[in-house]
Amino acid sequence: MAKVQVTMTVNGKSVDGLVEPRTLLIHFLREQLNLTGPHIGCDTSHCGACTVDLDNRSVKSCTMFAVQADGAEVLTIEGMAAPDGTLHALQEGFREMHGLQCGYCTPGMILRGYRLLKENPNPSEDEIRFGIAGNLCRCTGYQNIVKAIQYAAAKLSGTPVKEAAE
Amino acid sequence: MIPGSFAYHRPKSVAEAVAMLADLGADARPLAGGHSLIPMMKLRLAAPEHLVDLGRIKELKGIRADGADIVIGAMTTQHELIGDATLAAKLPILRETALVIADPQVRYVGTLGGNVANGDPGNDMPAVMLCLGAVYQIAGKGGERRMAARDFYEGAYMTALEAGEMMTAIRIPAPPAGHGFAYEKLKRKVGDYATAAAAVIVTMSGGRVATCSIGLTNVAETPLWAEEAAKIVAGSGLDAATVAKAVAAAEAITSPASDNRGPAAYRKKMAGVMVARALARAKSRAA
Fold first, then answer.
1. Which domains does chain B have, with CATH numbers?
2. Run of H or E including B95
3. Chain B residues in contact with A51 (beta carbon < 8 A)
4. Could B34 and A24 be called an inter-chain contact, meaning their C-beta atoms sit closer than 8 Å?
5. How confident is the model over B202-219, as pLDDT tens digits?
């Protein structure tokens, strides 16, 4: 099948590439742009490990063709830290609150947390749990992921951050 | 998992999309949010040769009042339904239903049109549309036609939509102000299809049911409109004996499959339980 030209902005940089129409966005990101932060977990739009931010929405990049993202603004975990390496508040929160063990779900969790906090800067615990319901973690039991997002919410709103997880 | 190869088309208008679908014939599928179609393509259960992406057609987006109707563009996402002020005021059952569909990421992309047009008996919105008496606006090469949602579903993944046609909008007569509503869904976990679910709209007058409509999800090959059950409760105060009769009437029209959500007998009973709960909650919300 003839390849198609796609152009998008990924982590603030304009990128383009030739893709087959059937190329999934996750494969374009990982294999053509070498952005291996977004992970392929279930490959069936359940687990959320492939979550990226696309035009101000959290999307599962395993369930979208790269051609559908033509012209879009995409943010992946590689674009979260500041250029000088300073971690984003969510990344810092996951580190400080022990929000990860194996780390496989973490890039998706952080990107989902990013959009959640953009839409609701001061979420309740219930709202966080509902908001990350499309992201599965098989290590942590979610407790410290919730704390990590609470940490980031507090830090981003300028309120004092609670003590770290035990 | 990699889908089969296809040619990709991106029309800018409904007219262009309809012309493409008519030219390409049965080998083409419209692509809405893709959250049913793409998983099917990855499993190679669907292998269209052409995809007509509706994602850039502006006229398919948005929610507006048109006289007594609410008209929702087919490409409006579940996320947009949840956040819309017109719907919150006039049709809150849509928000309640959208919130129990899939998960946040899927709701950002999945569309109302895709949900109702796909014909998957597990989808939640079709039963709500039967309950509300919605009308589907369907575009084809010959122009637009309208069809009642109650006449649209023919079997699992079988609808009245012909090859070359696409859904453009969902037109819903707004229920009267002060109506009660509920969508009760039993599911095993977030993101699951319903074991059974029921949509109810009621209006109350002097403590009695003035009007009632009931839809059922995922307990037959198609969504079901439980007309008889709704007739039974009309005029009643929703006393226990009347509700029990209505529940029995609703259960009687179901024919669920036994699957990993439970044996057929259980799912039939759960349809009744969802009807009873939805009636009670709808009544509690009615003015």
1. 7-53 (3.30.43.10), 58-173 (3.30.465.10), 181-285 (3.30.390.50)
2. helix B92-98
3. 105
4. no
5. 999 999 999 999 999 999
